[in-house]
Amino acid sequence: MMGQKTPLMKLTNQGLAAIDAAFLLGTTERLPDDPSFAAQIEGETVDLEGVNFTISKPGPESDPDAAVTLHQKLGIRRGVATDSKMWAWLATRHAAGALRRRWTTGERKLNRNRFVGRLVDNGLSRLWWAAELTLDDGMGPKAHRHAVGLLLLSQYRTDRLLSMGLVRHPPVILGVLDAIGKDLRWQVLNEICKRLGLLATTYAIDLMNREDAGDFVRRLYKDVRSGRDFATEDEPGAMA
Amino acid sequence: MTIKRQRFLPHAYANRELLFTITELRQGDENIDVDPVFDAERGKLDLRDFSSCSDPILVFVEVRGVDSSLYEKILPAEERQAPPLRYLAVLHDAAGWYRVVAPLKQMDGVASGCIKFSPRDSTGLATLEAVAVRTKTGVRVSGFATRLGMRVASSPLITVMTREPAQTPGGSLDTRWEDFRTSTHSRRKRSSKRIYYLESTAEPPVLWLNRGVTDLVTVLESKATTGQRAVVRDLLNQAIAGPVWYGLIHTAILSVEQDEDELPTVREGWRRGLLIRVAGKLYPGMSREQGFNYLLERLFEMKQGYRDDAAVLIEEMVAAIHDVLDLPEIVRRAFKELA
Predict the structure, then answer these.
(1) pLDDT tens digit string along A55-98?
(2) Residue A158: is its pLDDT beyond 90?
């Protein structure tokens, strides 16, 4: 059932400044309803009742389902989804508890960027964009869920691919995922991304369809793997 | 180690030589008159008036002059009879999170097709271009691109204004109001008549605007789209934006360094974002990534003292900032208001 549409907001600079250590610790449960903390995005509304920000088992394994659900229910378009301050508002006003549970792991401190960071870092926007950029024309729900799962398979993979403008297009990112499958060695992906960046100066990788991108990356993947051994070291700079 | 220029365009490349134009526009069942919205000379397509409708916009495009004169520039002689090329139209949103690609069908020296996009998926500004790409790998011939998937020609870019920007101009720069007379910052307090103060030592930088200047808040925060107040606001914004942009870019340039592979790089965040935007204006014939990498190479060489044309680069950067800020459009509207 459709809920009531409410205006979509974005955090102001004052709102961003309010996301402090107390907020991260949960002393302040969610961003207070202060008009100076958020401003309305003109003409944009959202059905927040339809979105369940509560994740039953918060953890990396729940990310793909959370991503698909968030993407389906939120009903926003890419134009507004590029606004990091909109995601900061959603994260701090409506999903603070869920994000704290998801990103407080072991002894790691919760990173502020999971609430107010770039699109790649924000705990909600990274999920939404992972689902958006893996949804190609004519794709069924099962295939989409599978592709989202592949993209969210490791934190390094998600960060690396979403950060790379070249692959932020469903046919290309799906081609990359088709080629590398479940190989989680961060060095392999890092090397592939570096080579893709260089080769894109002469090859029209950004315009390729899924099949061509997959074939192209498969050749790179084969070449990278045959070039040297990659140890299974920890991912670099993993962020809580 | 530095990257040589040839790495980026090592082969024959018909840079911006595809004759690309818009022939028809549609939204839903409605035709949109092309002439009032498309300035072919300046390469600008203004579709902002059609952004409120949720229907996608269909842009029918053509590349003319797809014939032997083009092939001579980009293909080895033995391939010119049956050119292994396909043509694509591509729309890139300026924010880098939306791209639409459409194949063009070739017939009688013209490649034509339709690209469909939704204004609501765009952040307000996009570019539209045509490119020619190889469809198979040929025999290697020096000076020519011969491998499948290589880009061999492009058209001039058409700037597409898709809708009013979702974010306010300069949206990512932290802008704050303060009465400089009562500021705790010594430099702002000392010169309390200043209109603005760029604190580029803050991370990320902060642009402080002086609330103590009479009417400054009213004018700069005006939502007017026409009239004198809008003109004054836009000109004032430009007067502030020019030096602020240059200051921020200068700061970004200072942080260009080499990564572990000795390739020039700049750290993630606002520095990278600014240089990517300027690179797009400096090298419109290259892709975003290509232009950015090439700019980094030039900046790094300049920092190392390898280049004796640093003044040329600075001159180009100032012109690129001018283009990013689109001063001619602001001036045109101001003159129109005066008339």
Answers:
(1) 667 778 899 999 999 999 999 999 999 999 999 999 999 999 99
(2) yes
d(CA B93, CA B77): 37
How far CA A70 is from CA of A124, A163, B32, B267, in Å, comes to 8, 20, 36, 31
- A49 or B99, greater pLDDT: B99
Taking an 8 Å cut-off on Cβ atoms, the answer to whether B167 and A83 are in contact is: yes
- Residue B195 CA to residue B216 CA, distance in Å, equals 8
Q: How far is CA B136 from CA B101, B113, B147, B290, B329, in A?
A: 19, 22, 6, 22, 43
Are A40 and A8 in contact, with CB atoms under 8 Å apart?
Answer: yes
A129 CB neighbours in chain B (<8 A) are 97
- Give the domain ranges of chain B: 19-161, 174-338
- In chain B, residues with a C-beta closer than 8 Å to the C-beta of A82 are 95, 97-98, 123, 166
Please answer yes or no on whether B176 and A81 come within 8 Å at the CB atom: no
For residues B329 and B325, give the distance between their C-alpha atoms in angstroms, rounded to a whole number. Answer: 9
Inter-chain CB proximity A201 and B290 less than 8 Å: yes
pLDDT at B14: 87
Q: What is the mean pLDDT of residues A24-33?
A: 87
**Cβ-defined contact of A82 to B151 (cutoff 8 Å):** no
Predicted-complex ipTM score: 0.91
Positions of chain B with pLDDT lower than 50, given as ranges: 1-6, 166-170
Partner B contacted by A207 (CB < 8 A): yes
Of A120-134, A154-168, B244-258, which range is least confident? B244-258
Nearest Cα neighbor of B28 from B8, B4, B3, B55 is: B55
Residue A233 C-alpha, separation from nearest chain B C-alpha, in angstroms = 18
Provide CATH code, domain B19-161.
Answer: 2.60.40
Q: For residue A99, what are its two tokens?
A: 């994000």
Please report, as a single letter, which amino acid is at residue A79.
G
Measured between CB atoms, does A169 come within 8 Å of chain B?
yes
Are B98 and A198 within 8 A, CB to CB? Answer: no
Q: Does residue A202 sit at the B interface (CB-CB below 8 Å)? A: yes
**H or E stretch including B279?**
helix B270-282
Whether residues A207 and B290 touch (CB distance < 8 A) is answered with: no
Region for residue B326 given its phi and psi (left: phi exceeds 0; alpha: psi -120 to 50; beta: otherwise): left
On the question of pLDDT at A4 being above 80, the answer is: no
Q: CB distance A198–B7 less than 8 Å? A: yes
* B contacts of A166 (beta carbons < 8 Å): 289
Least confident of A21-30, A71-80, A117-126, A152-161: A21-30
Which of B90, B120, B147 has the CB atom closest to A207's CB atom?
Answer: B90
Residue A238: per-residue pLDDT: 52
Q: Residue B255: phi, psi to the nearest 5?
A: -100, 5
